[in-house]
Amino acid sequence: MVKCHLSTIMGERRLKIADVSRDTGINRGTITRMYNEEATRVDLDVIESVCNYLRIDIGDLYEIINEDSSESSA
Prior knowledge:
The protein has a single domain (about 1-74), classed as lambda repressor-like DNA-binding domains (434 Repressor (Amino-terminal Domain), Orthogonal Bundle). About 60% of the residues lie in helices and about 10% in strands. The chain is built from 6 helices and 2 strands. It has helices at about 5-10, 15-25, 30-35, 45-55, 60, 65-74; strands at about 1-5, 60-65. The chain has a two-stranded antiparallel ribbon with strand order 1-2. Helix 2 packs across helix 3. It is globular, with a radius of gyration of 13 Å.
């Protein structure tokens, strides 16, 4: 499973979805889906724009969660 940390990062920086959308030119719906972890596909140029805007690496935005290891440790 891929986890998106956009909501956490935006919360820490007190950014609103509308601000990120306006400042990056990315559709508000796209940012909302990423924020709510509902996006199933995100264009690479969108990811690049978000990372550049937030001054983070892709690994800071997305993380692969191994579901097998979380089940065995529970």
